[in-house]
């Protein structure tokens, strides 16, 4: 699957995956004004990596964006990449399969999908990060 930023300076390619994960943490909401919808990938092929800026947003994750157009590209947690779903032109068949930081969700929206929901503490335990 292929993805790219708004200006095309950065592109990513990853294995087929149609499962979205919604993150409701405060950082994702500030970064994108709502839940962040991502596809999980390990070591995607990245073209234009010299155009990526990195921001260490927590002890265990960094947020990455295009230096030129500002597009939010992905959140990196170790070797795992959570690529923003909006970067994929071919998004037919995407389905939200889980929600994390559900206890931090803003009150102004709800998702209709019935998905597994993890609290902040449950997610941090799952990825082995301290709370």
Automatic annotation (TrEMBL):
Residues annotated as domain CENP-V/GFA: 1-110
Keywords per UniProt: Lyase, Metal-binding, Zinc
Pfam families per record: GFA (PF04828)
Entry-linked PROSITE patterns: CENP_V_GFA (PS51891)
GO-annotated molecular function: carbon-sulfur lyase activity; metal ion binding
Family per record: Belongs to the Gfa family.
Protein name: CENP-V/GFA domain-containing protein
Top-level taxonomy: Bacteria, Pseudomonadati, Pseudomonadota, Betaproteobacteria, Neisseriales
């Amino acid at each position: 699957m292929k993805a790219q930023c708004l200006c095309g300076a950065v592109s990513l390619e990853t294995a087929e995956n149609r499962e979205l994960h919604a993150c409701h943490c405060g950082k994702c909401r500030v970064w994108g004004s709502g839940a962040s919808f991502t596809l999980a990938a390990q070591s995607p092929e990245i073209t234009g990596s010299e155009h990526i800026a990195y921001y260490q947003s927590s002890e265990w994750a960094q947020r990455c964006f295009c230096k030129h157009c500002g597009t939010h590209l992905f959140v990196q947690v170790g070797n795992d990449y959570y690529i923003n779903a909006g970067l994929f032109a071919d998004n037919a068949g995407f389905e939200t399969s889980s929600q994390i930081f559900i206890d931090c969700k803003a009150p102004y929206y709800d998702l209709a999908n019935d998905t597994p929901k993890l609290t902040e503490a449950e997610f941090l335990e799952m990825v082995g990060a301290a709370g």
